């Protein structure tokens, strides 16, 4: 895929994906990103929480995460390298901001999010104020304009504090006139109730869905590159492939007759669908995005 100069990128409608962590953009939006690059459209991923941890000893909670990632000597450097490899596969530009992951953030030496319940709870007010102020200043320095950009931000399905904070930042930009679609955070949005809770969390808005067919195999190949993360969320690579294909086939029901017929005749999940898949396989895959006015 051709590379474009920074000057050329500034002159073209730009697709910008707001990624809380070093995998979220590909996990949630990899199909659309691949399609856009195949059509030679400029794509950039802004990684919000890709900075190194503060100096000092990691919290017990952060150490647990490092263990699940295989205890790398430099976890953030490893995850950045995975992201660079995955995005460069499609010729996507990446921007890395200096804010650190929630598992590392502290106030006066005390972890802000010391356990799972706090990580998937309400963002700490002081943390929210500091990060949103910092991100607004950093965003302004990118020198994009609303006329140039189509932006994609997390819905916050699953209520991870980092996803919620990036969503709040995107909502601020939307109020300022930026064009924003909200993506279904994968794998959190795999649970339909979790997804609905995220949509309901925006309050009284009228949602419009946007569904597009994707190349699921190409997306899976890119997801595999994030090797440090696979064991955290999937039992193995085959489990990753199946969950991506199940999830994206369910989205394709909106726009593809074959998957719509499958849902009518075999449903979603259960024995009848398993038999259907053995007989007919997957007929289409899609990603779905949401917007409101």
UniProtKB/TrEMBL annotation:
UniProt name for this protein: PIG-L family deacetylase
InterPro entries in the record = GlcNAc_PI_deacetylase-related, LmbE-like_dom_sf
Lineage of the species this protein comes from: Bacteria, Bacillati, Chloroflexota, Anaerolineae, Anaerolineales
Gene3D superfamilies, alphabetically?
A: LmbE-like
Q: Which Pfam families match?
A: PIG-L
Q: Which species expresses this protein natively?
A: Anaerolinea thermophila (strain DSM 14523 / JCM 11388 / NBRC 100420 / UNI-1)
